[in-house]
Write a structure and sequence with these properties.
five-stranded parallel sheet; alpha/beta; four-stranded parallel sheet; ornithine carbamoyltransferase activity (chains A, B, C); Rossmann fold; 15% strand; 2 domains; 315 residues; transferase (chains A, B, C); EC 2.1.3.11 (chains A, B, C); amino acid binding (chains A, B, C); homotrimer
Chain lengths: 315, 315, 315
Amino acid sequence: MKKFTAYKDVSQAEDLVALAKELKQHPFQHQEFGKNKTLGLVFLNPSLRTRLSTQKAAFNLGMNVMVLNLDKDSWSLELEDGTVMNQNSQEHIKDAAAVISQYCDIVGIRTFPDLKDREADYSEQLLQKFIKYAQVPIVSLESATRHPLQSLADLLTIEEHKAKAKPKVVLSWAPHPKALPQAVANSFIEWIKESDVELVVCNPEGMDLAPEFIKDVTVLHNQEEALKEADFVYAKNWSSYENYGEILAGHENWRITADKMQLTNKAKFMHCLPVRRNVVVTDEVLDSEQSLIYQQAENRTYAAQAVLLKLLGHE
Amino acid sequence: MKKFTAYKDVSQAEDLVALAKELKQHPFQHQEFGKNKTLGLVFLNPSLRTRLSTQKAAFNLGMNVMVLNLDKDSWSLELEDGTVMNQNSQEHIKDAAAVISQYCDIVGIRTFPDLKDREADYSEQLLQKFIKYAQVPIVSLESATRHPLQSLADLLTIEEHKAKAKPKVVLSWAPHPKALPQAVANSFIEWIKESDVELVVCNPEGMDLAPEFIKDVTVLHNQEEALKEADFVYAKNWSSYENYGEILAGHENWRITADKMQLTNKAKFMHCLPVRRNVVVTDEVLDSEQSLIYQQAENRTYAAQAVLLKLLGHE
Amino acid sequence: MKKFTAYKDVSQAEDLVALAKELKQHPFQHQEFGKNKTLGLVFLNPSLRTRLSTQKAAFNLGMNVMVLNLDKDSWSLELEDGTVMNQNSQEHIKDAAAVISQYCDIVGIRTFPDLKDREADYSEQLLQKFIKYAQVPIVSLESATRHPLQSLADLLTIEEHKAKAKPKVVLSWAPHPKALPQAVANSFIEWIKESDVELVVCNPEGMDLAPEFIKDVTVLHNQEEALKEADFVYAKNWSSYENYGEILAGHENWRITADKMQLTNKAKFMHCLPVRRNVVVTDEVLDSEQSLIYQQAENRTYAAQAVLLKLLGHE
């Protein structure tokens, strides 16, 4: 594995899930891989789970960690090539990436989309330029269109909690007052659709995700129909892909409630967090026995640890 | 010891002081307790001494440390239960606490009072909710009403510098241009009043601290009378408890000066820092041989180290 | 070595360069010096290279590291002695320095000039006061007038890439839209002029650096003349020393271009970064085979590591 930014970077996703599961049992057994190695974590956006779980994963492997809040601690970045940099940007991304990778054995980077220019966001320009100019393996800590560390943790969580060989997994759009990226949803689909599950995505009309992600995936516009006999319900808001970045108002009835969970096969409930309680999903569901939200959070450590270990050369 | 937020969390304060004293002599002797353990430090407010001394304490024990400036690096918190979170707060404290504790063996948290709603501040709502939902031991890095790591360091400092079995210790209110919490004063009283000292608190009329802290404590409104024959003078400003959060103006003459120190029994001078020089106390006193301000700061490391070691299971 | 803030703090610069070169080959060989030692990095200004390379250097030596963004994480500092601190500053530098050094074995500090009061900047008041009150060795992470870790890395880079015994090294002023410190240029001259090179500084008239730095140095006001037969070209902007802090406009033709590099002896190109591309120097030069900008950045680690190792007591 040379980098970890999308499903296609991984040769065998099941092997990575299995490795994460093993690391959860024996977290400190591979410190010979991390000794004298340094992980750099670069944030251009806020982070709680990713920030802490990835550090913890590195500590478990015996690595050193440096955190750089690039938006606050350092210089503003220029993304365009050939620009005469006489305005506000102080350092070109090609120089920042090349320099940061002088000091790190692996670099993680978080960069959100601006949700204004779809083509720019979906070309993943910042992440791709960073990869191009860095000289070490790059781990996405969530990029404009994907959040693969979250998806890997989600796969591990489903693997741990499934009660049948081929569970039904429903990803449901949910309401939210702010414009959010499509990254978590895109990424979850990209990873889970290759697993041995029955995947159903449901969202209001006009809120379909990008064709590259939902190709060959069952997408329903009727939430109740989708939830029937579900074994796992994953709720997540995203802003519109079609009317790029727009918020869909007036769909509060898409909120996941205990009544809706009654339609399912006593489904487990999942969300990547942070979650706006009683907007996306009710307290009753989040705080129920069926909720796996903290298990997902816990599994972030072992997902990150498996990825770091692979990038450090573990077979 | 399950947590460290107030005097009552500790079974034998003298034992903790003795442990801190021992760690100061042999700081690196217990690294088997900290190996592969992670301390998370969560700040909702500025910090210098606490931030650095607690990290240093953890390093001395061989622990890993992660720092989260929750107010800047992450998401804004919701404190109320049952809220429909469709406004500004992005993550509920119950989720933040549960998640952060997935990645840490011990979590330290700093949360200042807003000094507007006395009942809310004195119920320690943020700290208590964090404790309720966290799944690991919590250390207060200063909360709305207490600063116990400071108090433990202060006890160690008095223990090291007392010249008689039962010294007279005077805690004196001092002037300040901004509204400050009562936490350091409350906490100092809570800890020192159980020690073998003669404790006197002095403050202007109307500036008495909360009854729960000054019950059974000698409180004088005449500073000169209080200072007589003192062996230790601890100066600290606090805003009003009665007229909650108000600044008391026009009492510049409560500033500690060399002349006032002449009233004492060559008393040692103490302050928790940061201190506004020549407002709270004059340079002459702060920079004198009698001043223990840097010794107090140094002892913060060993106070924190003793607390962390206890929480890691040291008997 | 007691501190590292200027050339004069070092007894033998060549020995330090040689140590840095050796550490680059064997970075992890001296961890017995760093074990249980803590480096504190204090930033009052932005930093990328210095922040990461100095952490990496400390990790290579087995040290623990704590980073304090003093401008954001903590309290605002008072620099003047004797002030009645009833305004905005919350902590005196003498207290901050004394306290921070309680928790660290070595402290690094970054403090930029304000470029308004030349005398204040050139007296290095903040750095000097910090040193005066700290009780441990201090490393400058760039101060008002010098950036010695950069200069040491630059010396190492020149040593590695020189093709003749006494190369011609040209430091050229270059255009920039903002007022920048003179620190990198001052410091480069201070270090390189003692080496076995032919040093030429060139800048527009009125942009001469401080006499203490350019005394006995060849300073030309004609860039083309200066560049002739150069083996190394180091480009850097600085604001005016004479009209202190002023930007020199209308000198875009001082930008380093491929054409200008033709005047040289196939010179290597150097810049400390961050660089405003196509303002200071063209992409063509920066991205050419002759460019050493990333090698300079890489060498920051080993320069810092040599300095830390010396301060830890290595002979």
